[in-house]
Amino acid sequence: MPTACINQSDCRIHLKSERLEVWRRDTASGSDELVREIPIRDLDRLIIAESVQITSQALAALLRADIPVGVLGWNGQFLGGFLPAINKHGLARLRQYQRTLDPAFVLQMAGRIVAAKLYNQRRVVQRLDASRRESEPPAPEGRLEAAAPPVPAEAPPGGGSPAPQPPANADFPRPDAQSAIKDTLVWLDALFQPLQRSQTVDELRGYEGAATARYFQTWALFLPQEFPFERRSTRPPLNAVNACISFGATLLYQEAVAFLHAHGLDPALGLLHSTEDGRWGLALDLIEPFRPALVEALALDLFSHQMLGAAHFEPRNGGIYLNDEGRKKLILQYERRMERQFMSECAGHRTCLRQQLENQALTFKSALENPPAFEPFLMN
């Protein structure tokens, strides 16, 4: 059990011997009931909702075992966490501060991140289109099928990920969307060369923003019609799809923050995301290539396979948010994706997305002395 997520309201976590006990008051009987027991030795991280109480003894035991604890707000916002008090990386952080002030280093690292994200966006659309084609009935005689989408002439080298799952309903996307999908694949493919010639981080941000807007327009064609998605909206999310994407990204973000802290890096020093008070810029940078392969692919699966429906969302504070049951379902599927084993073409061995995320922190740390060591995550 690498991750335990305690999301139920009014739960209490106690320490007993070398395990955590999760208790909850039964509203019908008024008595306390033991919901779950979790051996600490089986745990890699703990995520709790803000309504969950944890004793200081349980928290201390987790920190002694080098287990980070993340706290999420009612709206899925990452409020913060508890990390083991280990300081073995002072020199590495000093080097990171120096490198972050080096424009050439920042441009090089940020360029690799944007290229990887763009490549993964294209792969997601390409795989979804291929899955749709496989699920379509044979074309009637005389009907001409569109050519397969082109493959980048010089695709960036890299790792892999599980393929995004095709929608269960073969009617999505609509037949008239076929040309739009093909055009988007060609457009994204053509963006690699000008991206490589970027001279400033602002140019990179411009390409990243344009690519993401075009990608989402096409990605949305694969959603069921009862869950429309026109654009990304955050703080607050304005519909169910945005709520799902935002919560999934929050889970990924808090893991990246914990990995960066664990390996002695300062998560606040951003490259593509400029360093600002109130956010962990480097964590936001490193999760960018994972968003298409994990967050958006997961959201699409949850809606297309009817794992999430209207009953799993609630209006609140001017936005739409997952309710307790909806968060529970998303967290379960998120964990399954993060731990699912696949063969990485880059690493040459089996791995999982969680290992790949931690590897981003490790390779970035190595790149402080040897820039070519940083290889952002890429899908097979």
Reading the helices and strands in chain order gives EEEEEEHEEHHHHHHHHEEHEEH
Could you tell me how far the N terminus lies from the C terminus, measured between alpha carbons in angstroms? 27 Å
CA gyration radius, whole angstroms: 22 Å
CATH topology type of the largest domain:
Four Helix Bundle (Hemerythrin (Met), subunit A)
Shape category: globular
| Helix/strand/pairing category | alpha/beta
Low-confidence stretches: 139-163
What is the CATH superfamily of the largest domain? Answer: CRISPR-associated endonuclease Cas1, C-terminal domain
Mean pLDDT across every amino acid position: 86
Largest sheet strand order: 1-5-7-8
CATH level-two architecture of the largest domain: Up-down Bundle
CATH class categorisation of the largest domain: Mainly Alpha
Reported for the largest beta sheet, the result is: 4 strands, mixed
Strand content: 5-15%
Helix run count: 11
**Number of extended strands:** 12
State the share of residues found in helices, binned by percent. 40-55%
List the domain count as a whole number: 2
Could you describe the 3D structure shown?
The chain is an alpha/beta fold and 380 residues long. It folds into 2 domains: 3-82, Ribosomal Protein L15, Chain: K, domain 2; 91-137 and 145-373, CRISPR-associated endonuclease Cas1, C-terminal domain (Four Helix Bundle (Hemerythrin (Met), subunit A)). 44% of the residues lie in helices and 14% in strands. It contains 11 helices and 12 strands. Strand 3 (19-25) and strand 4 form a beta hairpin. The longest helix is centred in the N-terminal third of the chain and has 33 residues, at 103-135. The two termini are 27 Å apart. Residues 139-163 have low confidence and may be disordered.
